Structure formats: C-alpha cells, structure tokens
C-alpha cells in the first residue's frame, strides 16, 4: 500500500517538475492589461470606421451602395483581426496561469490526501515526498518574485542603457541564466511592454526608454501606461504607435516626453493633464490638430511639431507663456494664430517649409525672440512690428516671395545673421537704413533683383560674410564683391565719401561763380553811371 502510494506521489512529482515555466506575476497582470486595452482599442477603431464611413457616404455620389458596404465590412473585419492578433499572446499567458492554478489545486489536494492533518506519518514516504512537491511549488513562485526583483536591481544599475532587459518572462533570469546585456537589441511584443510597465510601476521607475524597442505590429500602448506615476522621462520614439491611451494624462510628474517618428494621428483630450511637462517632441508623426486641452501645458518650454500635417495651430498655443522653443517646420501651415504673440518667453521660432503667406502683427510682441527662420514659404512681406524684436539675432526669409523689407527692421539692432536670398524677381532693394544693424556679421542677398547697395552699408563694420550670388549688383561691381564683405563695406564708404567731396566742391564752385558774376554786374553798372562809384 505504502509503496503504491509512493509510486503515485513520485509520478505526481515528475509531472509537476516537467511543467513549462510559470508566468511571472507581472506577466499575468500585464496580460490582463493588454486584454483590457485590446477591447478598448477595438471599440475605438470600430467607432472611427463608422465615422469615416458616414462621411464617405455624404461625399461618394455615384458609388454603389453595396460596394461601400463591402468596404465597411472589410475594414471592420481588419480591425477585429488586428485586435485578435494583439490579444493572442496575452490570452495565452492568462490561460497558462489559469491552468497552473488548476494544477496548484490538484497538488494541494494530493498533499491533503497523503498527509492529512494530524497524521503526518500515515502516508509513509509518500507524505514526505508530497510535502517536498508543495514546497517546491511555493519555491518556484518565490523564485519568480525574486527574479523580478533581480531585474529591477539590474535595470537600476544600467539606466544608461535604457531599460536594458527583455522582460518576456522575468523568471527567465533564473531559468536560463540570461542577463540584460545580451538582450538590449531585442524588440518587445505588446505583452512584454505591458509586463515592463507593471514591473516599472511597482519599482517606482523614474526613467523609461523604449526608443525603437517595440515590434512593428504594436500600434498602441496598453492602458496600464497610466500606472507609471513616478516616471519623469519617457521615450517611446521611433516605433509605429498610432494612438496613446487616455491614461497617459495620469503621468503627472512627467517632465520629458519623446514620441517622435511614430504614426500618431491625434492626441487624447487628457494630454493636457500633463501639467509638469517641460520638453515635448512630436516631430515626424501624422498629426493634423492638437486637443483643446493642449493650452493647459503651461510648464512647456520646448515643443517640436515639425514634419506633421498641421495646416493651422490652435489659438490655445498662446497660453504657453513659458514656451521658449517652438519648432513647426515641414508642415502645411497657412497662417499663424495671432495669439502667438502671447508666447512671451519664446526665444526660438522655426517655421521653415510651410505655406505661410504672412506673419501676424502680434509677432512683434515676442520681445525675447532671438531666432526666427521662415525659409521655403510664400511670404510676400514682413510686418512692420518686426522692428520691435530688439533681441533678434537671426532672421531667415530665404526662398519666399518677399517684395520688400520694412525700414522698421533696422530697429532690430541685435541682428547678427540676415538671410533674404532667393526671393528671385520680387526683392529689388534693401532698407535704406540697413547700416543701423551694426552687429550684423552675415548677410545673404543671393538670387534677387537688387542692383545697388544703400549708402548706409558703409556702417556695417562687423560684416564678415556677404553673399550676392546671381544678383545683378551694379554697385559695387562683381570684382569688389569677390574680395569679401569688408571690401564691399569699404567700397561703399569710399563711394559715399567721394560723392560727398565732389558735391562739396561743386557747391563751392557754384557759390564763387555766383559771387563773381554778382561783383561783375556791380562794376558794369558803375561804369555805366547807373550807380554811384
């Protein structure tokens, strides 16, 4: 009897020890989060399909209704298929854990049979062996937790490497002796990302780097992202993310967020709740608008919106009174909101490669602005308020349709670099008072129709770079321009001085000729007796 019992216990022990590795606690929680996110994402995508189809029905005159119905069903089926694919791994983990719990119950049940309470010796050797199995089962669960802790310690010690470890199964650190250093280049699946979020949230991680670390199939992040309450820096750039969960607004301590080079179409309304955000990089996505709550990001200092699909910026941009750097180049911007003038801390504004035709007068309120670049737009003129930018050091309006530069620009006396090149047939003259820009070091007037430099050019004593390629300048001549910027300045100075001397001599000669003619007339009248001698 005892021998038979021992044989059964031995068989149970062998079965248990041949089981595959059990998922870590974080993995199970992550899988549950992924399933919840997949459901929410599927509903959101289906709602998007419904809205787009409603809009298409209004516009698609003459298209077969049946064909449109087929398209609608195909798109809905594709959404469901992608959601199923995203659920697959998470569902496997959840099912694995469910079956492990069934085996846990069976082992506990066997333990009670061979070692009933108060009868520890009745099962003979089988009771001892069964107790060992139960202890081993508990030890394996403890090992999983210990592995997770080990991951945390290694990650904290290798923060400079990013997150550093493949968290496919935290317990794998003990199972196969793997280390973080040989996994840095591996890409993570959705459930691995969710697992990493869970473990990072529990450890109070402050920096998380997922740049280029997600497999291409991941188009959204799990709702559990909102658990990263202690994170201050988050980098999820260079992936293929199309949407952020609304829970991103829970990251109240986040100061730096980098999402560049993804496929974001919009931002959730909760984005404006990131009240501590200082640095935000959204360049190289597919954004066409910003949520109304964006104006609540009043701590924002650096914002990169370049390489998106913006045609306008919202008026709420004017609420960003601490914004120092705004990069919005390579979009489809046709105008700037007048409220841009309320961004009174702005130091750098880059708007290259857009469709701008003019700047609002409010631009003159940006008294701290030092850099303004506008090349490759359709601007025909600058506002007169440009002269109020007394700290402006660099202005680039090349490759536009500028017809004239206002004289008021000469009040921007801090200008060091001015580029008005390649306005082709439109720009024919520089401001007469350009010599007021005594700090100017670089000037480019290439490919315009300017034929003569103004006399005040002689006062540009600090000019060291002067380009006038393909500009039909007659004064100074081309051979002087080849000698360099200061040779041009000196030529204009000499020309002005020469003209002044010549004019003075001419005026003097004219006076004495007049005087002699007058004196001659008096002598003639005396000789004729018309006046007394």
TrEMBL record:
PROSITE patterns: LRR. One of its GO terms (biological process) is intracellular signal transduction. SMART domains: LRR_BAC, LRR_TYP. Pfam families: LRR_1, LRR_8. It comes from the Eukaryota. Keywords: Leucine-rich repeat, Repeat. SUPFAM superfamilies: L domain-like. The keyword Transport does not apply. InterPro entries: Leu-rich_rpt, Leu-rich_rpt_typical-subtyp, LRR_dom_sf, LRR_domain-containing. The keyword Transmembrane does not apply. Belongs to the SHOC2 family. Leucine-rich repeat protein that likely mediates protein interactions, possibly in the context of signal transduction. This is Plant intracellular Ras-group-related LRR protein 5. The lineage of its organism: Eukaryota, Viridiplantae, Streptophyta, Embryophyta, Tracheophyta. The gene is LOC123181439.
């Amino acid at each position: 009897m005892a021998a038979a019992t021992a044989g059964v216990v031995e068989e149970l022990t062998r079965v248990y020890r041949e089981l595959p590795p059990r998922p870590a606690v974080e993995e199970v929680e992550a899988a549950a989060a992924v399933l919840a996110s997949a459901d929410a994402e599927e509903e959101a995508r289906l709602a998007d399909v419904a809205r787009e189809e409603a809009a298409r029905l209004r516009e698609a005159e003459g298209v077969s209704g049946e064909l449109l119905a087929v398209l609608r069903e195909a798109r809905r089926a594709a959404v469901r298929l992608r959601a199923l694919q995203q659920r697959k791994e998470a569902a496997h983990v959840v099912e694995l854990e469910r079956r492990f719990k069934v085996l846990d119950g069976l082992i506990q049940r066997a333990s009670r049979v061979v070692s009933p309470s108060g009868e520890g010796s009745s099962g003979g050797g089988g009771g001892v062996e069964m107790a060992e199995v139960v202890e081993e089962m508990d030890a394996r669960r403890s090992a999983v937790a210990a592995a997770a802790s080990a991951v945390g310690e290694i990650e904290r010690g290798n923060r400079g490497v990013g997150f550093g470890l493949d968290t496919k199964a935290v317990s794998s650190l003990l199972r196969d002796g793997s280390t973080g250093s040989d996994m840095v280049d591996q890409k993570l699946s959705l459930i691995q990302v969710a697992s990493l979020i869970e473990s990072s949230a529990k450890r109070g991680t402050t920096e998380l780097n997922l740049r280029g670390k997600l497999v291409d199939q991941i188009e959204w992040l799990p709702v559990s992202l909102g658990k990263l309450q202690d994170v201050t820096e988050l980098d999820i750039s260079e992936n293929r993310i199309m949407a952020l969960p609304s829970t991103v607004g829970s990251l109240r301590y986040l100061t730096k967020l980098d999402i560049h080079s993804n496929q974001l179409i919009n931002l959730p309304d909760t984005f404006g709740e990131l009240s501590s955000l200082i640095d935000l990089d959204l360049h190289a996505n597919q954004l066409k608008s910003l949520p109304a709550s964006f104006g609540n990001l009043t701590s924002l200092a650096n914002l990169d919106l370049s390489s998106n699909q913006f045609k306008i910026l919202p008026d709420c941009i004017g609420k960003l009174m601490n914004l120092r750097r705004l990069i919005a180049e390579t979009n489809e911007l046709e105008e700037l909101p007048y409220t841009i003038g309320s961004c009174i801390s702005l130091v750098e504004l880059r708007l290259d490669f857009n469709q701008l035709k003019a700047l609002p007068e409010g631009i003159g309120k940006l008294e701290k602005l030092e850099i303004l670049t506008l090349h490759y737009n359709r601007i025909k003129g600058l506002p007169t308020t440009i002269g109020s930018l007394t700290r402006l050091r660099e202005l680039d309006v090349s490759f536009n349709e500028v017809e004239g530069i206002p004289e008021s620009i000469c009040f921007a006396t801090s200008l060091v670099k001015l580029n008005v090149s390649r306005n082709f047939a439109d720009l024919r003259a520089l401001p007469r008072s350009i010599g007021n820009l005594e700090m100017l070091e670089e000037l480019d007037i290439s490919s315009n129709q300017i034929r003569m430099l103004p006399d005040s050019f002689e006062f540009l004593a600090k000019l060291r770079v002067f380009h006038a390629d393909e500009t039909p300048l007659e004064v100074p001549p081309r051979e002087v321009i080849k000698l360099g910027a200061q040779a041009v300045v000196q030529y204009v100075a000499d020309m002005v001085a020469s003209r002044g001397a010549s004019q003075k001599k001419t005026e003097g000669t004219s006076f004495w000729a007049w005087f002699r003619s007058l004196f001659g007339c008096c002598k003639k009248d005396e000789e004729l007796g018309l006046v007394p001698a």
